[in-house]
Amino acid sequence: MKIRFDQKFGSQFFDQIPSQPGVYRFLDSTGRAIYVGKAKNLRRRLGQYRRARRLKAHRKMRTLVEKADKIIWQCLATETDALLEEARLIRELRPCWNVAGAFSFLYPYLGISQTGQITQIYLTHRPTEHDSAELFGCYRSRKFTELAFDSLNELLGFVAPRVPRREKLAHGAAGPGGWVRPEKIAAFRGLHPEWMERLRLFLREGSTQALEELVLELSDYPAARRSGRQVQLHLNALKYFKKWEVLPLKRERSVQPEAAYPVAQKDRDPMFILLSVKKAEAKGRALNAEKTKSIQGSRFFQNF
Description:
By secondary structure, the protein is α+β, with helices and mostly antiparallel strands. It has helices spanning 2-9, 42-50, 59-67, 79-93, 142-156, 165-169, 193-205, 208-218, 222-226, 228-255, 265-296, 299-302; strands at residues 22-27, 33-39, 70-75, 109-115, 118-124, 133-136, 173-175, 178-180, 184-189. The chain has 2 domains: 2-93, 3-Layer(aba) Sandwich (GIY-YIG endonuclease); 104-265, no CATH class.
C-alpha cells in the first residue's frame, strides 16, 4: 500500500504535513470531497492510510486511497475544534463516504398536537412550523425512536379510541409549503389532557414520574390488564428510548441551555461533541487525581 500511496500523492507528501490537530479531505478528480476526517495528529493519522494493509478493517482506507485524486488538510488549534469543523464540513459537503451527521432526514422527531377532541402523535424526519404542533428531539436513533412511537400508539390505544385513517389525514402537519405528511401518524379521540402533559414530560425530560403515572393509568383498563405481556414490552421500549435518546439529549442541552428546542441537527452534533469532550476531560482529571493519591499513599513516597 505504501508504493500505491506514494505513486498517487508523491514520496515527499508527508514532509509538508504538520503534527497538529486538524481536518483532512479526500478529493476526487473533479475536486469534490468524497471523505472528511479529523485528526489529533494529522501526520500520524494520514500515515495510517499509507500503511493500510489487506485486512477487512483497512478496506475503507484502501478504497479511499484508490478513489482519491488529492488530499488536503486544515490545521486547527485543538482536537475539539477539529471535531466541530469535521461535523460542519460533513453537513455542508455531504461526502459520499460520510453518512453519520450528513443528512438531516436521518434525525427523527416526535410530535404531539391537539385539535378539538383529536390528539395526534407523529414521527417525522422533516420538522415543520405549525401552531398546534409541538416537536420533541431531534433524536439520533431511528430504531429506538420508531419503537417508542409504535409503543405509544399501542398504549394509548387502550385508553382512547383511534381515529380512522381518512379523518387522521385531515389533521396533517402544515408547513410553509403546504401540508407535509409525516412518516408515521397516530390519532386518538377524547384523550384526557393529563396524557398530553405526561407525554411532554416524558419526551422532553425523560420524566420517571410521567412513566409511572402512565403505568398506573393503564392498570385501570381491563384490555391493558389482559394484554399484560404486550404492555410490558411496550413499556420496556419506552425505557430504552428514555435511556438512549431522551436523557442523552437532555444532558447535551445542559451544555448550551440557551439553545432552542426542539434541537436542530446542526445544533445537536456540536452539543454532543462538546459534552463528550467535557466527559473525557473530567474522566482524565479523576484518573490523575486517583494516581496522585495512590503515589502519595505509597510507602516509597512516605519515606521522603
